[in-house]
């Protein structure tokens, strides 16, 4: 029989462990399939990623400007071949102030019946807080029409200030909290500290399972001459360019930090993460598949970026290239210091010339990353020395 003193010590240790936080558990990972055009590279990405994924959350339909639901042609055979359940996502324009509830509910229910293997329905509607009561009413009706089929929604941090959030969450089975691209684009795409704060607050409000949507992509935002945002180019090219543009990117290391926090100290009701979006070789603003896998698996994200110079098309000038020899994507260096005997130089593709007291630099003007085993020209220079030595400054 154990000694009473030993039992007391064991009890104290157990209480201490409980006080330190929730026990870490393996995270489950879902992924949004947000492509509107299904290509061979998308099918390849599905097959290469299925071993990491619990569910696919597939954009199946979205409303037009008049509130009419337009279906997206998805490859159900390609999805079925992965052996993973599918949650169909319906995107309702956040600017819509009203719609025909009866017609929209009937169309969503029809989506469920259009093919086998549907594991749930998700509604993506980024409405303002003033619209939350009406949204909750719609969700309640939709849930009744779906019967036992699970219903989830995407949720915004802005809703945390509204008491009506409780009613919205009460109408569904699960929520996915979005922590990226929820502020002004000038504030950036993703902030680790803010995301952690939002997750903690949401956990206190939610009485049901919730997931956190994490970014693995970048966007180009354009503004006009008056500072008004006119275009966001992410998974689809923008229709117009403005007087000012900026590349926004979610750095793999930053996202990995939040992922580790969620794993090591999961909040109450936290069920896992959902990635936006499934990366493909055609998606120039998403991480590469190897980088995404490395972040999910918690592997080291060691950058292996080098700067090289080589003869260019213009006689006497050298092209400056960044090369990533690593197996994961790397953030673009903040600056490149050029040789002291360089007479002239200039930057391109996200870099611009910076003249300092100690010499010439190429300074990063656009955030972004360099994919694994790729290279990018970032400038050119004219130097007198035969040996060129470019220093990468982070």
TrEMBL record:
Superkingdom to which the source organism belongs: Bacteria
A Pfam family it matches: DUF3142
Protein name per UniProt: DUF3142 domain-containing protein
């Amino acid at each position: 029989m154990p000694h009473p003193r030993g039992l007391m010590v064991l009890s104290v240790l157990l209480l201490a462990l409980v006080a330190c936080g929730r026990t870490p558990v393996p995270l489950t990972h879902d992924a949004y399939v947000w492509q509107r055009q299904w290509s061979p590279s998308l099918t390849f990405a599905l097959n290469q990623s299925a071993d990491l994924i619990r569910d696919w959350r597939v954009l199946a339909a979205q409303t037009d400007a008049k509130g009419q639901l337009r279906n997206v042609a998805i490859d159900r055979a390609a999805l079925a071949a992965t052996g993973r359940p599918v949650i169909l996502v319906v995107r309702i324009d956040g600017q819509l102030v009203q719609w025909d509830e009866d017609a929209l509910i009937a169309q969503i229910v029809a989506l469920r019946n259009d093919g086998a293997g549907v594991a749930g329905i998700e509604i993506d509607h980024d409405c303002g807080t003033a619209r939350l009561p009406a949204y909750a009413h719609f969700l309640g009706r939709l849930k009744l029409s779906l019967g036992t089929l699970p219903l989830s929604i995407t949720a915004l941090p802005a809703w945390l200030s509204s008491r009506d959030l409780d009613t919205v969450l009460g109408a569904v089975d699960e929520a996915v909290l979005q922590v990226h691209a929820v502020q002004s684009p000038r504030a950036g795409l993703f902030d680790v500290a803010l995301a952690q704060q939002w997750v903690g607050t949401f956990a206190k409000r939610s009485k049901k399972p919730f997931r956190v949507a994490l970014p693995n992509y970048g966007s180009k935002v354009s503004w006009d001459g008056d500072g008004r945002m006119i275009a966001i180019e992410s998974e689809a090219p923008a229709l117009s360019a403005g007087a000012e543009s900026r590349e926004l990117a979610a750095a793999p290391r930053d996202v990995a930090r939040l992922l580790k926090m969620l794993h090591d100290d999961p909040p109450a009701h936290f069920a896992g993460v959902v990635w936006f979006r499934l990366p493909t070789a055609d998606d120039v603003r998403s991480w590469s598949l190897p980088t995404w896998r490395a972040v999910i698996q918690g592997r080291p994200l060691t950058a292996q970026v080098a700067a090289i110079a080589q003869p260019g098309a213009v006689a006497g000038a050298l092209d400056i290239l960044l090369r990533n020899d690593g197996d994961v994507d790397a953030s673009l260096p903040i600056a490149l210091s050029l040789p002291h005997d360089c007479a002239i130089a200039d930057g391109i593709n996200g870099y611009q010339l910076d003249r300092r007291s100690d010499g010439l630099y190429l300074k990063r003007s656009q955030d972004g990353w360099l994919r694994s085993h790729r290279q990018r020209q970032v400038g050119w220079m004219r130097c007198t020395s035969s040996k060129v030595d470019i220093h990468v400054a982070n």
